[in-house]
Amino acid sequence: MADIKTFHLPDLGEGLPDATIVEWHVKEGDYIKLDAPLCSMETAKAVVDVPSPYTGTVQKLYGAPGDIIETGAALADFAPDPNAKQRAEAEATGHHHGPKKSVGSPAPDNAAKVVASDEGGEVEAKGEREDEGTVVGAMVSGNTVHVEQVSSAGGVKAVPAVRALAKKLKVDLTRVRPTGADGVVTLQDVKTAAANGSAPLGAAPARAVPASAGRHLAPELPEPGAAPSRTAVSLAGKPVRTAPPSVQASGQPEQLKGVRRNMARVMAEAHANVVPTTLVDDADLHGWIGKQDITARLIRAIVAACKAVPALNAWFDGKNLTRTLHPHVDIGIAVDTEDGLFVPALRNADVLDGAGVRAAIKRLRAQVEDRSIPASELSGYTISLSNFGMFAGRYATPVVVPPTVAIIGAGKLCHDVVAVMGGIEVHRRMPISLTFDHRAATGGEAARFLKALLDDLSLPN
């Protein structure tokens, strides 16, 4: 009997505990060569092709497209070809070939951990890995498989990675011919449609969707029965609730995946481990001369405040009660997308001029939108900025994500009546919220930081 080898999902180099199967490139019984594409997995940032660790026959595939596989869980079984050259077990493969070690178990002193990179290649790291840089942090892993539903928004059944690729390639998913099981649109379907131009956005009305195609994969809830007749007032003549108690909210639960899944974990971790305190005030922009780049001015003001009060441009280790003050300023810029929250780092903001800031932010946003941003750009920032005022809202309590100590929130610009000597004036002002970890910084330090930021924003140019 052939020696069966089990391949476990490797850490894809992002510090994330799981990934979602997007598409298998083989089926059980297929013969596959070493390093040939085995499957595509969606992580919190990108779709990664996982290569085969063996040359041989695929015996078993664990999971189907849409399933979440946790890091270290079995992904596929192989019967290696005894006549083909195989990579040595100890040789760097870009993967771990066994279940991950249990929490707390020591690693061998001479062990070299090898993990797959975002591009599918290999990155070797000696000893324990630091936080590899996730969307909003790093969490621990498990080893179970979760079966979840394929999203059927718009009458098209597809996983989020397929929808992201269709958006990038400007393909109308409603006009793509699905080849996946149960009418699911696959990555290859989108690539084919983009190549032959059969489904461009806006070219023609979307195809009609059969009634069966729009059905959810989960069992449907029964239709609520007819509501009993009720009156709007009671016998005493007082208003009463007219909705029958039997009416319930409809809808189906779905597993969070990728970016949103990681965001949920990290936000919960931050809530549990940070002592947040928020200060708010308004930056008076009445003195500005001419048209100016608001985001660039915000970045410059944050840099000025970090230089004035370094205590907030820092990392804090709550377990060991240590603080690291940073001489440079790398600002995490919160970017909101349909898939969830990304926080790319604007490196060396303290040495960039306005044009440099704008060019760097434009590059980061473009990489976030097409999911090409490398893991190194999503970690290591020293302080954060959330410019939520681009949409709505004046003040907020932004979330501080460890190990950072502070985050600045910029609200929506407004025109306020301001008292001045001898009367009143209307000034343009920007609401500013500063949330900081009170374990690492005092209220006085935070107030002085906020004042330095407001003072810089009030300058004419």
Automatic annotation (TrEMBL):
One of its GO terms (cellular component) is cytoplasm. Forms a 24-polypeptide structural core with octahedral symmetry. Gene3D superfamilies: 2.40.50.100, Chloramphenicol acetyltransferase-like domain, E3-binding domain. InterPro entries: 2-oxoA_DH_lipoyl-BS, 2-oxoacid_DH_actylTfrase, 2-oxoacid_DH_E2_comp, Biotin_lipoyl, CAT-like_dom_sf, E3-bd_dom_sf, PSBD, Single_hybrid_motif. Coiled coil: none annotated. Residues 212-228 have a biased composition (Low complexity). CDD domains: lipoyl_domain. SUPFAM superfamilies: CoA-dependent acyltransferases, Peripheral subunit-binding domain of 2-oxo acid dehydrogenase complex, Single hybrid motif. This is Dihydrolipoamide acetyltransferase component of pyruvate dehydrogenase complex. One of its GO terms (molecular function) is lipoic acid binding. It holds the Pfam family 2-oxoacid_dh. Keywords: Acyltransferase, Lipoyl, Pyruvate, Transferase. It comes from the Bacteria. Its EC number is 2.3.1.-. Residues 84-94 have a biased composition (Basic and acidic residues). Residues 82-112, 212-232 are annotated as: Disordered. Residues 4-79 form the Lipoyl-binding domain. It comes from Dyella marensis. Residues 157-194 form the Peripheral subunit-binding (PSBD) domain. Its cofactor is (R)-lipoate. Belongs to the 2-oxoacid dehydrogenase family. It is an enzyme of class 2 (transferase).
